[in-house]
Amino acid sequence: MKIVNRLERKLYRLQIHPFFKYIIFTMAGVYALQLFFPSFGLIGLLSLYMPLVYKGEIWRLLTFLIVPPLQSPLYALLHLYFYYFIGTALENKWGQLRFLLYFIIGALGALIAALLTQVGTNYYLFMSMFFAFALIYPEQEMMLFFVLPIKMKWLALANALLFIYMFINGNWPSRVSLIFSLLNLILFFGGDMLNLSRNYIAQWNRRRVFKNAQRK
User: Fold this and answer.
1) How confident is the model at residue 207 (pLDDT cuts 50, 70, 90)?
2) Distance (Å, rounded) from C-alpha 21 to C-alpha 66?
3) From the centroid of its chain, how far is CA 152?
4) Reported confidence tier of residue 42, pLDDT bands at 50, 70, 90
5) What is the DSSP string of the chain?
6) Strand pairing partners for 114?
7) Residues 6 or more apart from 121 whose CB is under 8 A from it?
């Protein structure tokens, strides 16, 4: 967090305007073009594949950030709305400059992962925003499948367990992508997550000692 604060102080004079909504609108446009004109292969042209970058297609180093989720239209719409909701909420909470730093650090992590694995993805970058939102607003409720209210902290915990499972059982490219794409989360919240873990462990130990004392 000290590194982030120093970067923010150095860049405080920059006039940064809200930008994340335009990323989501662009992703929606890319999805629509791919849906109605699949033969053009737009998503294939925008995706990050390093062998093609080495051949001169350098735009892929940026355009992979606007590649939408490749699912059904309803799923993609819900996904993009969720991205819009958490991204703009973080932008309003932190201010445009700090949110831009968070986004850029996550994008750089995704690029480093692509250099090592030869294939890039924006999935973990957007998931890092979800985890950031859950850490800031843990009690915020969402309607899972439109019917089941669930707090963000439990949704984040479920996804964290899934990431741990993916890291343990996945291949090395997946592990590298996961770690480097979450660099922004570690830089911004590493200390907070460590303190939170320590508090949970301390509480668990106190409850264990209390239960053992009652049994005696």
Assistant:
1) low
2) 12
3) 14
4) very high
5) -HHHHHHHHHTTTS-PPP-HHHHHHHHHHHHHHHHH-GGG-HHHHHS-BHHHHHTT-TTHHHHGGGPPP-S-HHHHHHHHHHHHHHHHHHHHHH-HHHHHHHHHHHHHHHHHHHHHHSB--SHHHHHHHHHHHHHH-TT-EEEETTTEEEEHHHHHHHHHHHHHHHHHHS-HHHHHHHHHHTHHHHHHHHHHHHHHHHHHHHHHHHHHHHHHHHH-
6) none
7) 48, 64, 110, 114, 177, 181
pLDDT at residue 206 greater than cutoff 70: no
Residue 51, both tokens: 């062998």
Are the CB atoms for 73 and 35 separated by under 8 Å? yes
Which residues make Cβ contacts (< 8 Å) with residue 181, sequence separation at least 6?
106, 109, 110, 113, 121, 123, 124, 125, 127, 128
Q: What is the pLDDT of residues 140-166, one digit of tens each?
A: 887 766 667 888 888 888 888 888 888
Domain range summary for the chain, segments of one domain joined by +: 2-191
pLDDT for 66 equals 94
**Which architecture does CATH list for 2-191?**
Up-down Bundle (1.20)
Is residue 170 within 8 Å of residue 121, measured between CB atoms? no
